[in-house]
Specification:
Blueprint lengths: L4 H5 L4 E4 L5 H14 L3 E5 L5 H11 L5 E5 L4 H9 L4 E3 L5 H9 L3 E3 L1 E2 L2 H10 L4 E3 L7 H7 L9 E3 L8 H7 L4 E3 L10 H20 L1
Parallel strand pairs: 1-2, 1-9, 2-3, 3-4, 4-5, 6-7, 7-8
Helix pairs in contact: 2-3, 2-9, 7-8
Organism: Undibacterium danionis
Enzyme class: lyase
Subunit structure: Homotrimer.
Length: 211
């Protein structure tokens, strides 16, 4: 596994969040997201049989795809994800014990933050990126202010509620990518629906990158 999160984000800096996905559909859904250009996919642990789904994706998706878990709350859950081959830990909070558990296993970790205090504590514990969650709590004007004091190399990823036409304002404020949940995938969506959604985000990002 590459130990640099940026390498997985460099093709398309978008992380797919497949909350509520079922084992019998996870590979097909994840493959279409991968084919659209995504290289980071997480399955929140409050999805049905999430650990089994993560194992399936690790086994069946190309090795240049970073697979992991979201809504990780404890060090024990970090170990569970690692055991089935997941290498990405995404959290809704900034519990430094969870961050350190992930880093001790050479995993990539993106904790959720809503304040600068949480952000600096997470970075000090070894966070590879900051998940600005929910994105409404860190609007572009706030992120722009954060960037004046955060280390220049800090990867900031707004998560939640950002639609394709909302990428620009966050990028202008200093975001390097995004985590995409229900606007990308909703439980029960078909492969075709997910592909259309994924394509819309990829097209929006590429248009932004070329501007």
């Amino acid at each position: 596994m590459n130990s640099n999160l940026s390498s997985y984000l460099s093709p398309i800096p978008l992380i797919a969040i497949l909350r509520g996905i079922q084992n019998n559909e996870c590979v097909a859904i994840a493959r279409t997201i991968y084919d659209a250009g995504f290289r980071c996919i997480e399955i929140p642990l409050n999805s049905p049989d999430a650990i089994a789904s993560i194992r399936l994706l690790v086994e069946q998706l190309p090795k240049d795809c970073l697979i992991g878990a979201g809504t990780v709350m404890t060090p024990d859950q970090v170990a569970d994800v690692h055991q089935v081959g997941g290498r990405l830990i995404v959290m809704p909070h900034a519990d430094t014990a969870v961050i350190r558990a992930a880093k001790s296993l050479d995993m990539l970790c993106t904790p959720g933050v809503a304040t600068l205090t949480e952000s600096f504590a997470a970075l000090h514990a070894g966070a590879d990126a900051l998940k600005l969650f929910p994105s409404e709590s860190v609007p572009p004007s706030v992120l722009k202010a954060w960037r004046t004091v955060l280390p220049a190399q800090t990867i900031c990823l707004p998560v939640g509620g950002v639609k394709p036409d909302g990428l620009q304002v966050y990028v202008d404020a200093g975001a390097q990518g995004f985590g995409l949940g229900s606007n990308l995938y909703k439980a029960g969506w078909s492969v075709a629906q997910v592909r259309a959604s994924a394509d819309a985000y990829v097209l929006a990002w590429r248009a932004l990158a070329m501007a």
